[in-house]
Amino acid sequence: MRLNRRGVLRGIGGLGATAALSGCLNVQEQKSQSSTSGSIDDSNGPSSTATTWYMLPETELPLRESVIQTFNEQSKHTIEGSDISDLKKKTTSAIPTGQGPHTFEWAHDWVGDYSQRSFVVDQRDAINTSLDSFTESAAKAVQYDGTLVGLPHSAETVSLIYNTEIVDQAPKTVSEMVSMMEAYHDPSANQYGLSYPFNPYFVSAWLQAFGGYYFDASKDRALGIDTAETIRGLSFALDTFKPFMPSDPTYEPQAAAFAEGNAAFAINGPWYLSTLNEKNINYEVTTLPTAKEAGGTPKPYTGITLWYFTPAMQEDTTAGAAARTFIEWFVTNEDHILKRAKEQGSIPVLNSLVGSEKLPPAVKSFSQSVEMGTPMPIRPKMNTVWPQMETALIKVFNGEESPKAVLNQTATSIRDSWSK
User: Using CA atoms in the order 12, 17, 19, 20, what is the torsion angle rounded to 10 degrees?
Assistant: First the structure.
């Protein structure tokens, strides 16, 4: 299972600790040619129509539809895009029966699971875009055990956002942030210090801040949620942030508090910016504050969003060519990548734009948070960790269990499920 970032999670990051992305191709062995100009190369073969699926919030749909329309107007091919309400359920049911799309968009944490289940296919010999066009970690994120299962277009992680009508300047440390939250927090007046969905992806920064971890495929004992360091991180997050948050830990009520102008701070991702822009919230984005007083450094999970290659690309070669043409254009066209960065906070992974002065300040701040982070594991065992951790965090937030008890119980349950 993959948590939905807009409801419970979603996909992410220009990844700092790339070693966790194992089984990769050598990037330098990829084709030397690159489509960094973002031009459409559809000179070979007949015209065709390909389907693509994605799952976006309403605020992002107009731009996606506009991008597809632009491609269709400039190319001999046609792309039919569909916004899917439950992409996980739809892809896992449709692809095995031959009813799936030619490509779909999601974060890199499905790479391992979908590769093992043959929901995605290797297209390394068919693409004309060099992986050298992208950041090293983005290039590694789209590979699995010697195969290339997609092309990357953006990075994601969570960072600190503050309302500039409430907060004068960004806090550098957690203690500074706490002082600012205390000055504003007043639930009786519908004022909150912090808007923060309390789920496994969002709070990963603190559970991993003191040496803890969720899952590490490089270790003999891969699961780390019951280590003393992870337990300490969860206790820190609860003690520090819960007192200033709305009482419901789930995404919608937490996100709404800041989007309605009723919270001083939010911890959320770049996908959230389009909502804030629509709500006319005056905000700035900064990196997560350090927890140096407690001896920790926040390490949020990060991810790469990509267009996956599905079996339909091989089964229908003409439509597959259309899908590849669209994907290669989408991931290398600087004009619409910049537009997405400016309007939606999207973090480019195209080398020609990484760190560019053309990027808005918010995107630069998110990029810095990405570099602080830890890449989401891609191994299929993580599918069991996500949902059980979600349940565990809700329990501990609601005071039903202590951090140590709930993480120990959850670890036992996850290991039991792995052994079956």
Answer: -50
314, 121 contact by CB (below 8 A): yes
Which amino acid, residue 405? Answer: A
Asked if 287 contacts 299 with a C-beta cutoff of 8 angstroms, the reply is: no
Cβ within 8 Å of residue 333, ≥6 positions away: 38
Q: What digits encode the pLDDT tens for the residues 385-411?
A: 999 999 999 999 999 999 999 999 999
Is the full-model pTM beyond 0.70?
yes
φ, ψ for residue 266 (rounded to 5)? -140, 145
Locate 207 and state its tokens: 């559970």
Looking up tokens 């919608």, which residue turns up?
A: 252
Domains of the chain: 5-156+302-375 (3.40.190.10), 160-298+379-419 (3.40.190.10)
The answer to whether 56 and 340 have CB atoms below 8 angstroms apart is: no
**Spatial distance between the Cα atoms of 358 and 93, rounded to a whole number of angstroms:** 41
- Alpha-carbon distance of 14 to 303, in angstroms, equals 7
pLDDT tens per residue across span 126-170 = 999 999 999 888 998 999 999 999 999 999 999 999 999 999 999
Please check whether residue 375 is in contact with residue 15, taking contact to mean a CB–CB distance below 8 angstroms: yes
